[in-house]
């Protein structure tokens, strides 16, 4: 499974307009909000780069499974492709995930809380969320917003080789202009 | 799942593994148990790669990744005396990605396969434990469906086990030990299988029941 992802952000005061437009464009469903706590774990070996795993749990849905995600390196394939493409493995797990990862040798690198809205259009997922920094490690009640904007993420998880997906993503992204200009991120700029 | 006890049945004197399995299944059928398909529990062992050990400063650990046909969409990963993670089958894909850090000890893949029998509220699974091509022992799993608290039904389970295992009836499994009132879960069954497989791996040859 290979997700295509495009990112941008929108300032807090523009959030309502964006949500309104997304409700019109996306599949007709009850608006879904979420409050998640994500922890990023690293396993260091003799390889140059550590192995990264992301463990995510819902803070507002009791009993939901934890979500473990592996994201590979961005594929430096076709430059004309409109979205960032990475190999990904998603696993639902039981609640003792963090204990298990520590037992495997992983160590937590950082954690954050994400709160926002989730929309779908076919196989595309659009997430508008704000990231909160956790002030005291392990205490998710004590957080502060990282910025004055919301992150907008358009992603698709599809079997490898389906490049036509990124065209659908570009077409959808066009419809969100001028509220937000969704573009492919150059991974080198993030380093 | 109900409270479950997993144990090893020694091979009958002068008989092969298969013959002993047949003796046991015939006894169950005479009791009135009905055959209900087959089952399989398998276990692969992974150990921390040497490259990861140096930076961690800790002894290599063994991690077991197991599957149970009773839960076809799940994968169980556990450490001995450590936590047991219940995940979906994509965990196997993750282990492939982690092969630089965790190496599979290929030769130690072990599994048990056999028939499922339903007898009223009891589900009995008698399996032949194999490592590669060789049969190494016999596993017997008995589940009492209606109850999920071990201390509430262990005496009943014991009585049922005695009715067809006779003198080979096991003692209370270690997983019941400290957590008498805890709700029993499939992870507890997998821990029992892991202990059974480890015991069988260490045995040089198929254990034979002594003459009484």
Could you report the average pLDDT of chain B, rounded to the nearest whole number?
86
- Give the overall shape of chain B: globular
- Which percent bin holds the helix content of chain B? 25-40%
Radius of gyration over C-alpha positions of chain A, nearest whole angstrom:
17 Å
Q: What order do the SSEs of chain A take from the amino end to the carboxyl end, as H and E?
A: EHEEEEHEEEEHH
* Ends apart, CA distance between termini of chain A: 24 Å
- Could you say which structural class the secondary elements and strand pairing of chain B correspond to? alpha+beta
Rounded radius of gyration of chain B (Å): 18 Å
Q: Which regions of chain B are unreliable across 5 or more consecutive residues at pLDDT < 50?
A: 53-57
Oligomer: heterodimer
Range of strand content of chain A: over 45%
How many beta-strand segments of chain A?
Answer: 9
Q: Can you count the helices of chain A?
A: 4
Succession of helices and strands of chain B: EHEHEEEHEEEEHH
Computed structural class of chain A: alpha+beta
The description of the largest β-sheet of chain A is: 8 strands, antiparallel, barrel
Biggest beta sheet summary of chain B: 9 strands, antiparallel
**In percent terms, what proportion of residues of chain B is strand?**
25-35%
Please estimate the helix content of chain A.
Answer: 10-25%
The neighbouring-strand order within the major sheet of chain A is: 1-5-4-3-2-6-7-9
Number of helices of chain B: 5
């Amino acid at each position: 499974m290979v997700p295509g992802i495009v990112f941008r952000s929108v300032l807090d005061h523009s959030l309502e307009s964006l949500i309104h437009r997304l409700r019109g464009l996306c599949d007709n469903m009850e608006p879904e909000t979420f409050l998640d706590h994500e922890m990023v774990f690293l396993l260091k070996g003799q390889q140059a780069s550590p192995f990264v795993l992301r463990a995510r749990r819902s803070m507002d849905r009791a009993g939901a499974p934890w979500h473990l995600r592996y994201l590979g390196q961005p594929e430096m394939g076709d430059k004309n492709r409109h979205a960032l493409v990475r190999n990904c493995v998603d696993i639902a797990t039981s609640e003792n995930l963090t204990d298990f990862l520590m037992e495997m040798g992983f160590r937590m690198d950082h954690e954050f809380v994400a709160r926002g809205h989730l929309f779908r259009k076919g196989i595309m997922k659009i997430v508008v969320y704000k990231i909160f920094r956790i002030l005291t490690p392990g205490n998710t009640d004590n957080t502060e917003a990282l910025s004055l904007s919301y992150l907008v993420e358009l992603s698709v998880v599809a079997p490898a080789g389906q490049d036509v997906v990124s065209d659908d993503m570009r077409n959808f992204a066009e419809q969100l202009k001028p509220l937000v200009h969704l573009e492919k991120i150059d991974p080198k700029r993030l380093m | 799942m109900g409270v479950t006890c997993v144990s090893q049945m020694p091979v009958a004197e002068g008989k092969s593994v298969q013959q002993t399995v047949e003796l046991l299944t015939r006894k169950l059928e005479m009791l009135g148990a009905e055959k209900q398909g087959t089952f399989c529990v398998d276990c692969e062992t992974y150990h921390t790669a040497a490259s990861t050990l140096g930076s961690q400063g800790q002894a290599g650990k063994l991690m077991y990744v197991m599957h149970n046909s009773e839960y076809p969409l799940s994968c169980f990963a556990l450490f001995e005396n450590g936590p047991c993670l219940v995940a979906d089958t994509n965990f196997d894909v993750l282990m492939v990605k982690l092969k630089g850090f965790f190496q599979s000890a290929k030769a130690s893949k072990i599994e048990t396969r056999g028939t499922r029998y339903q007898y009223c509220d009891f589900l009995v699974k008698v399996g032949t434990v194999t490592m590669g091509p060789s049969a190494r022992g016999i596993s017997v799993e008995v589940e009492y469906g209606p109850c999920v608290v071990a201390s509430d039904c262990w005496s009943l389970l014991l009585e049922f086990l005695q009715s067809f295992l006779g003198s080979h009836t096991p003692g209370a499994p270690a997983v019941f030990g400290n957590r008498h009132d805890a709700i029993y879960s499939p992870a507890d069954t997998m821990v029992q299988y892991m202990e059974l497989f480890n015991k069988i791996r260490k045995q040089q040859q198929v254990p034979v029941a002594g003459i009484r």
